[in-house]
Amino acid sequence: MYHVRQDEAVAEVEQVTATAEALALIARLTNKHGPLMFHQSGGCCDGSAPMCFAQGDMIVGEHDRRLGFIGGAPFYISGSQFEYWKHTQLIIDVVPGRGGMFSLEGPEGRRFLTRSRLFTDDEIARLSAQGKL
């Protein structure tokens, strides 16, 4: 069980972050397509790739959760995937290759990739105190 005193200031824990290279690609795609959004795919076609869309091109479901923002773009994950990954921080990176067939980075010759790390006990306690778990 994790405890945080009520009177302690609780520093925000980011549930999703992005590498400098991912942020640069997000900026390039934003310049080309306008405001973006991300959804952590769990589909069969693109595995567990983070999918990048122009805002509004994907309808967010009632069970999807917004984890945060990367490069100013909201980042969502399905509720069922969140339950599986809620103890990890998602780190969005970029690698050579073609992105998912519906993801905007496909023509760039680069693709977004999700890396992750387990939260520390302290981070779990802070996320819990923030009502994010």
What does this structure look like?
By secondary structure, the chain is of the alpha/beta class. The chain has 3 helices and 7 strands; from the N terminus they run βαββββαββα. The chain has a 4-stranded mixed β-sheet.
| Estimated helix fraction | 10-25%
Strand content: 25-35%
Radius of gyration: 15 Å
Number of strands: 7
Low-pLDDT segments:
1-5
- Largest beta sheet, briefly? 4 strands, mixed
Give the helices and strands, then pairings.
Layout: E1 16-18, H1 20-33, E2 36-40, E3 50-54, E4 65-70, E5 73-77, H2 79-85, E6 88-96, E7 110-118, H3 121-129
Parallel strand pairs: 1-6, 2-5
Antiparallel strand pairs: 2-3, 4-5, 6-7
Q: What is shown here, in short?
A:
This protein is α/β, with parallel strands linked by helices and 133 residues long. It has helices spanning 20-33, 79-85, 121-129, and strands at 16-18, 36-40, 50-54, 65-70, 73-77, 88-96, 110-118.
Structural key phrases:
single chain, 7 strands, 133 residues, 3 helices, 4-stranded mixed sheet, alpha/beta
